[in-house]
Specification:
2 copies of one chain form a homodimer.
Chain A: H1 5-12, H2 16-24, H3 31-43, H4 50-57, E1 62-67, H5 73-88, E2 92-97, E3 120-124, H6 131-138, E4 143-146, E5 155-158, H7 160-173, E6 179-183, H8 193-207, E7 217-219, H9 224-235, E8 243-246, H10 249-261, E9 271-276, H11 279-283, E10 287-290, H12 293-309, E11 319-322, E12 325-327
Parallel strand pairs in A: 1-2, 1-3, 3-4, 4-5, 5-11, 6-7, 6-8, 8-9, 9-10
Antiparallel strand pairs in A: 10-12
Helix pairs in contact in A: 1-2, 1-3, 2-3, 5-12, 7-8, 9-10
Chain A binds a DNA duplex (30 and 30 nucleotides) through residues 4-6, 14-21, 24, 27-30, 33, 48-49, 51-58.
Chain lengths: 337, 337
DNA sequence: CGGTGAAACACAACCGGTTACATCAGATAC
DNA sequence: GTATCTGATGTAACCGGTTGTGTTTCACCG
């Protein structure tokens, strides 16, 4: 078998308790003793047993990340931010997605698989009314949300209303008045990202005294294909918009494709603005409201780790809002009648 | 505190041993007894303690996934395949990314963090000579590689030589003779994906009696930006190629951008073929050799789970090769002098 | 009807740490 | 010189399961 703490203790001529304290940096250990124990442990190539440590201490040293998608840009980028922080904090990252990658297959919900298994949970952009989300919250363990806000739960997001406003205002400033919008899904649930961005859109329109034409709203489901369909729908109207606000870059990509199919060029014939700052947006010359996606994950993870490390101290529930930035590229241009 | 197996045992009037066997479906438990125990456990909302179970049994029920990148398309797509399988197998997925030569992050290597912590390891496309990879292999635990092959280690890949051949042959079939290539990094390490694809490229060229012009080889580092630079280098030659084989779709995207910057149109002025089947390749009308990326992860995970479940039986080390498929789109066209 | 064996279950020894509490030596205080 | 305190360390009771080794029951057989 492998080396146990007992072996180290014997080799160092101390008790396992002292070894445990010495290796974990606890106080009340003589500096010399600690050093000797560390040396011996290294020599013996001793590795602590996480299972035993967890069982005895009650802490698992791991955090679950729950996400609806793994392979989509936004989610994998958030995940990379989270991972980097957890790695530095020496915490294990348990990855769980709540839907199968290809389809809507029914798999067992994550909540039961979390109990007694992790110290905290990070949830990426699940709809605020999602049942699985609430099952997770019902576990009542330290949790942080990313990309969603919910009362009394810590969260890290951008100001989606503002993002919608900024994007829309940009189009308005360029002189556009007939502005279309490609939203996510036709849900009436409040507070989702697309809902908020839509509110920002409306506010900007209203503030400018412009009408929101309901026939210029189309659903893109946050996918490229969806964005393409949505844009096609807008273009085949009797009176198409001169500018379009797509609520995600990926939908904007789809929209660009639809425009090309119709012989139109983004920025020349129709202005298009997205939200995200997707890797490809620069490549495709898309004007977009950039959000610091990796930081969303990073900061949420940092906050959670901090909370787990602060002994009992009731960390105040705060929702952190990160800034966005409009990057103007070739896909938007002044309105020409 | 929460319910323990003892509570269930008492409530059912049996020993903890019987509860343990009953709930895990082991034999030698009366059908009636088992049912009763299951019912009582459910009523009590009993959840087994993973730590205790792991400590006692020696199995962790979790698998580590080691990857150089999380947010890149190939890696996150593989990961999604892996996750789906592990979820179905009720195994925990520990995600760890490793620092890479180009990534400046100096973080502790994954190998030490694996010991006693997971039952098996899945490694995604680490260079075959990577030190961290070999540290992981030295742990001598069940391991499967994805996107790399190494002697005596199970792996799941595509035939990269063949992929290179197919892509190149496609260009040759179209009548191109002056063919450039955008490879990954200037390494002399054998057996990496780009090395193999390059070999396929050479083989196809040789078989067709064409010369491989070393000045038409450029490094794209598997990134969009790198592909753009590489293509720019090719275009600014005194005698540019009429067709280019980019060893990944993302580098091909960059190449497309470079072409546009030079007023050239992919498929009309210069033919371009990639490898991957990236989500955006259809959108950008890129001809590419599609590899089943998600299946790579899925199948590797399935094999590993199977190995872990087969009791001691020496599963033969086999490297699985998945098929690729050339998808011809608008970025390639016949050579016109 | 005693012998036999298998099925069903109980006992208890682990698995390998953590930590409250006890102990002990040396320093400080008086 | 003794009482007191403090820092360093040992003792041992857990943490909550798993599993090898009995023990009991009972059907089956000669």
């Amino acid at each position: 078998m492998s080396i146990t703490i007992k072996d180290v203790a014997d080799a160092a001529g101390v008790s396992t308790a002292t070894v445990s304290r010495a290796l974990r940096g606890l106080p009340n250990v003589d500096a010399g003793t600690r050093e000797r124990i560390q040396r011996i442990a290294a020599e013996l190539d001793y590795v602590i047993s996480p299972s035993a440590s967890r069982l005895a201490s009650g802490r698992t040293g791991s955090i679950a990340v729950i996400t609806p998608y793994i392979a989509r840009w936004f989610f994998s980028t958030v995940l990379s931010g989270v991972e980097s922080v957890l790695q530095d904090a020496s915490m294990d990252l348990l990855l769980m997605s709540v839907s199968t990658p290809d389809g809507q297959q029914h798999r067992l919900p994550p909540a039961p698989r979390l109990r007694r298994r992790v110290d905290g949970v990070l949830v990426i952009a699940l709809p605020p009314h999602d049942q699985q989300l609430h099952e997770v919250l019902a576990l009542n363990m330290p949790t942080s949300l990313i990309g969603v806000t919910l009362a009394d739960i810590p969260s890290v997001t951008i100001d989606d209303v503002l993002a919608g406003q900024i994007a829309t205002q940009h189009l308005i400033n360029l002189g556009h008045t007939r502005i279309g919008v490609i939203t996510g899904a036709p849900v009436e649930e409040p507070f989702t990202a697309d809902h908020d961005r839509h509110r920002g859109f409306q506010q900007a329109m209203n503030a400018a005294g412009l009408t929101v034409d309901p026939t210029l709203e189309s659903y893109g489901y946050f996918t490229i294909a969806g964005g393409e369909q949505a844009m096609t729908a807008l273009l085949t109207q009797r009176n198409p918009p001169s500018a379009v606000f797509a609520m995600s870059d990926e939908m904007a990509f789809g929209a660009m494709k639809a425009m090309r199919s119709h012989g139109l060029q983004p920025g020349r014939d129709i202005s298009l603005v997205g939200v995200d700052g997707h890797d490809m947006s620069e490549f495709l010359d898309l004007t977009t409201v950039v959000q610091p996606v990796q930081d969303l994950g990073r900061i949420a993870a940092e906050a959670l780790v901090l909370q787990l490390r602060s002994p009992g101290a009731e960390v105040e529930v705060d929702s952190i809002i990160l800034p966005t930035q409009l990057i103007v590229r070739g896909s938007t241009s002044p309105y020409k009648a």
